[in-house]
Amino acid sequence: ALLDRAQALISRVVEQESNPNPRLIHTLATMCEVQEARHLQECASDPSFNNTNTRGSHTIGKLASLIRENDDFYDLVFSKFLSDTSYPLPVRCASARLLLSIHDAFS
């Protein structure tokens, strides 16, 4: 259900390329932040949990893969929105937040 919701948000952002809604991007960032926190909490509570090796199979890894594998979304948000100063500051900030929220999952 979470991945389906994320996919729906990704599709909406791509559809609204000319006038993106930063709330959609912030919602994705929040989803990623929550899942990253859950993953870290699980790692902290179980010393045998290897933080790096398990991230890909955890929901945060799946979210990061969903984002990374959607070329249109990835290029739009992390290249165009971040570098093109014609986009409003809230869109650029939301894009930066999303990038930071999944950075560890990309590693």
TrEMBL record:
**Gene Ontology, cellular component aspect:** Cul4-RING E3 ubiquitin ligase complex; nucleus
Name of the protein described by the UniProt record: Uncharacterized protein
Ordered alphabetically, the record's keywords are: Nucleus
Gene Ontology BP annotations: protein ubiquitination
Quote the subcellular location field of this record: Nucleus
Task: Classify the main location.
Answer: nucleus
